[in-house]
Amino acid sequence: DISVARDSTFDGLKTPNMDLSGATIGGDLLITNVAVSKRLQLVHANIARNLTISSSQIVGIAKLSHLRVGWDFAFRNSTAETLDLSNANVDGDFVIASDRRFVKSGVKSGAFILTNTKVDEVNDSLACYHSIQRREFCDAGTYDPWPSKLQMGGFVYRDFTSIDRPYSWWVNWLGRESVFTPREYDQLATVLRSNDLNEMADTVIEGKTNAEIASSDILTRLRLFLNRSIGLASPRFYPFLYFWMLLFILDRKSTRLNSSH
């Protein structure tokens, strides 16, 4: 394992694999202008201050699971087929930043795995770095550096920059999760309430119910619908619900058999 007491920089490296698993860096770690064709690994690495991956391309997976960063982790103007930060701890900001030209190129990472990841603040509006005069570009409703696929079960963050965003943006962001879990909605609602955005938080919780219904089997959908709409889905009504569903299924089967003759 690599152990360095000071800052470390990897600049301009082109390699199939880059393995810094278990590394201990006493200062900042900067990975810039690097092209990795297969795998970048920082599993169980410990970075005392900042970790920055800048202007780099990882064609395969960037596996940073169980990573520990003392200050900020910044992923700037960079892409990875999959950025795996599962079980990582970032004591500062998780920065996803891209400048105007990079965003307009349309290049994005494939997926972020943030399962059981803990960060202090999510900062995805640092494209606004050096660009206070470019507020229109940094508008939270249009600027979006996130990949199309996310895994966020157990993703914990204290705050989110530019938290006051349109509800449609949050729906789109939460909808990138491949498997519905209620914790994502509860986490976001908690952060919204801490910023006195209680109405938006209530809307997110309502969205959680809708997402749960959409992701459930037909019996669960019916129970959730009744529970929310008319309050009839107490356990004593379950036999009636199952009987109704059984009749529905038998009727569908009968219809298909008749149509086949």
Commentary on this structure:
- Helices cover 30% and strands 29% of the residues.
- Mean pLDDT is 82; it is low at 129-135 and 229-233.
- It has six helices and 17 strands.
- Helix 3 (182-194) runs antiparallel to helix 4 (198-215).
- It starts with a strand and ends with a helix.
- The protein is of the alpha/beta class.
- It has helices at residues 100-104, 167-174, 182-194, 198-215, 218-229, 238-260; strands at residues 3-4, 8-11, 14-19, 24-25, 29-32, 35-41, 46-47, 51-54, 57-63, 68-69, 73-76, 79-84, 89-97, 111-113, 118-123, 149-151, 156-160.
Topology (elements, then pairings):
Elements (H helix, E strand, L loop, with lengths): L2 E2 L3 E4 L2 E6 L4 E2 L3 E4 L2 E7 L4 E2 L3 E4 L2 E7 L4 E2 L3 E4 L2 E6 L4 E9 L2 H5 L6 E3 L4 E6 L25 E3 L4 E5 L6 H8 L7 H13 L3 H18 L2 H12 L8 H23 L1
Parallel strand pairs: 1-4, 2-5, 3-6, 4-7, 5-8, 6-9, 7-10, 8-11, 9-12, 10-13, 11-13, 12-14, 13-15, 14-16, 15-17
Discrete helix count: 6
Query: How can the largest sheet be summarized?
Result: 11 strands, parallel
Helix content: 25-40%
Whole-angstrom Rg: 23 Å
Q: What is the 3D shape? A: elongated
The SSE order reads EEEEEEEEEEEEEHEEEEHHHHH
Strand content: 25-35%
Query: What's the count of strands?
Result: 17
Contiguous low-pLDDT stretches (5 residues minimum) are 129-135, 229-233
**Which whole number gives the mean pLDDT?**
82
